[in-house]
Amino acid sequence: MSRTEAGDVLTDVVMRTFRLYGAFLDAAEVMTKPVGLTAAWWQVLGPVLREPMSVSGIAREIGLTRQSVQRIADLLVDKGLAEYLPNPAHARAKLLRPTPDGYAAIDRLRDIQHEWANRVSAQVSVEDLRTTLETMTKLVAAVT
C-alpha cells in the first residue's frame, strides 16, 4: 500500500497526540496531588460523578482496559473515595460511585483545574478548540 498525504498527516497527529497526552497527564498529576488524588484516580472518578457506572462502562468511556480500571476502582474504594453498589442490570458487575470524600476531593480540584484550563486555553482561540474537539470526536469514531 502506498503512502498518502492524509495518512502522513494522520501519523503526525497521532505522534502529537501522544505528546499532548503525556503533557496532560503531567499537568493532571500536579493538579491532583494537593487534593490527595492522582491523575488516574481522577480519570476513573470523572465518569461516575453524575451517575454510578460499572467498571467496564468506565473503561469504555475513558479508553482504558477493564483490568486497569478495576485496579484503580479497587484502590479508590480502599482509600474511601468510592464505593461499590449493587447493579440491578448485572449481579456480578457492581456499580462504582464516589463517596462524600471522593466528591469533596473533586470539588477541591475544581478551582485548580479551572485555573489551569483558563491559562492554557487563553493561548488558543475558542474556535480552534471547538474545531479540535470536533476533529477528535470524528477520529475517535473512525478508529473505534
From TrEMBL:
Species this protein is from: Lentzea rhizosphaerae
Domain HTH marR-type: 7-141
PROSITE patterns attached to this UniProt entry: HTH_MARR_2 (PS50995)
Protein known as: MarR family winged helix-turn-helix transcriptional regulator
Pfam families (UniProt xref): MarR_2 (PF12802)
Top-level taxon of origin: Bacteria
